[in-house]
Amino acid sequence: MSRKEIKAEAKDKLRGNWGWAVLVFFIDFIVCSILAGGVTAGTHNGSWKYKMSLLNPEYYYKYGTTSTIMGIITGFIALSLVISFLNFRDGKKDGVLKAAFSSFTNGRFGPEIINYLLSTVFTYLWTLLLIIPGFIKSYSYAMTPYIVSDMVASGKTVQATSGITASRKLMDGHKMELFVFNLSFLGWFILGLITLGIGFLWLVPYYQTSRSNFYRALAGNQFK
């Protein structure tokens, strides 16, 4: 399936379902924004106190630790978009709230968060060596949440690195293909920025549905 066909199929799938898709993304966005805002408000409470805390090394430790934990939590919530739109693409449209928090349902939490954390750590370690290897590895691990979702749905046992290993093999020879696929949304991304973020309410569902099509075209049902 060509890139054009993948995106056209996503548009067809979303026709008549835009309200659901936008609402699922909006809920996840609001939750992640509240969590991120809470960290900022908690650490920058009071201008004098904030300025003084900058002189204290303990501030950087506490702020860094809190930010890292919140980053992991919000990242995992964002994984719900991957799972819910993959299900949507496959004809399994969950209710809005269940879809918005799908990474926490149906036994996905354990396998998804372990593979998510490890893929994040591996990518970070590669990036410490050099930026480019880390960037390449991020594409190697890009299909991990999709694969884990398929494996969990089919009742397969998911080990700590099952999704990561399978994604690395699946993306062998296809990393540039996914990179070009992502670049094809650059114009839409710029439009989203121009509209002060409002355009992302439609762009993200369109992108997630298209990316689910990309995964299914590449993997088929081999992990189910």
From TrEMBL:
Protein name: DUF975 family protein
Stretches that traverse the bilayer: 20-43, 63-88, 113-136, 179-204
Classification lineage: Bacteria, Bacillati, Bacillota, Bacilli, Lactobacillales
UniProt xrefs under PANTHER family: MEMBRANE PROTEIN, MEMBRANE PROTEIN-RELATED
Keywords annotated in UniProt: Membrane, Transmembrane, Transmembrane helix
Signal peptide positions on this chain: none
Classification via Pfam families: DUF975
